[in-house]
């Protein structure tokens, strides 16, 4: 009998929206300032997931230039009706003081791979909207924001009908829910079963008080009653539990009638979510009084789900951190990659910041078999980043790359980056120093505090090899001139700094690792990367 080990989507894969179409399941996750927007995964057994699509992959249709970190694409909602996928998402342009500018859009496609329609603008009423198909009517279900100081900022859930022919919202807006006493109501999605409309929301905030709240009504417009057992899922009661921050869920039913919930979670290292928010799956059971709960009982997320709902076989996540380590490595081996840059496009794992790879100076044509990165702005910029990175998906990994780069002076840099956002990264770079010539240096930026390690001189010519060795909370950078003998490039660095909890402002992403090149004087400099290896330990 197949077992599903949580999380099913490791590393930065938050705010899951799950849907089944025939024998296939799809999950869409948030991507914030990363491009292409929204990653969609596919599975046939709920356990093994593969990349399916990145629907927002056109600079003409998605412009994130200049947006702040943790803004951008929030909480997609993927549904399917009558032969068509519907993907709803928010572009958060502003999230400052009391204000959020949240523009909501819909794109549709017959096939998950596309082509996807042009975005249809819906409204700006809040974030996390979803679409509910109720027979031949469609409803936009959305949380709302109230910026006034004397009101709850997350002010409830509205619904409004969506007119598919007219490509617009129509008719009255109904405030159907004001949230449970837990508050911070967000991520609403709706389903219907046994004559009830069920409204499933995230509450408590996406940090350690996160949960799933359920309310139901006989009428779509309400009134909604909150589940007396609410919340049906949370890790809040147990700080030491290895799967934390459980919330933001959506149900899916298998072809044979079993129910599961996909939800957000994190596996902190010493209280820090370095891996960001991940996606887990739970067995769900319906109760006699028409509510639903975790099939194994209680509210704590399980470390494993079964492919059928045999309760005694469900296991709670173990507390020991070595078990967590095991979950993060043995069962996440699929994260490994050895990319030789021989194919004409970048592998899907590599994301770029705010713009497409082509707009970020990434070039697979000029030197066949190498990725040329034409130098861009500093890593602290919100524009024109010449940088690409992939998700860190395990607690411990090695990342290695081979670089051909000849910096003209200290304004020219290229190398390997462990990156959280523009204010938080560790950069092992090749640059040039007036006295030492070509050199290796580590620049650490943590909440905008910059530290440079002493430069280490390297031969003026020849390829260099750069390595990041991450072991849970520790990062050590190495360099080599022959790919065999590596020297440490500086002191051990504190990876906890690249976590949701340590970064200033909203920590919504997760640690990434990647390669880039900066040309701070616009001299037309580039760096060539022969390969990139990411190996989980
Ligand atoms: C997301 C909201 C949430 O839109 O965090 O955990 C916000 N829940 O639903 C950012 O991911």
From TrEMBL:
Positions marked as site (Important for catalytic activity, responsible for pKa modulation of the active site Glu and correct orientation of both the proton donor and substrate) = 128
What species was this sequence derived from?
Answer: Enterocloster citroniae
Q: What family, per the record?
A: Belongs to the glycosyl hydrolase 43 family.
Q: Which domain of life is it from?
A: Bacteria
Query: One GO molecular function term?
Result: xylan 1,4-beta-xylosidase activity
Q: What are the alphabetically sorted keywords of the record?
A: Glycosidase, Hydrolase
Residues covered by the Beta-xylosidase C-terminal Concanavalin A-like domain: 339-535
> Which EC class is the enzyme in?
hydrolase
**Entry's Gene Ontology BP terms:** carbohydrate metabolic process
Q: What is its EC number?
A: 3.2.1.37
Which segments cross the bilayer? none
Alphabetized Gene3D superfamilies for the sequence: 2.60.120.200, Glycosyl hydrolase domain, family 43
Q: Which residues form the active site?
A: 15, 186
Q: What is this protein called?
A: Family 43 glycosylhydrolase
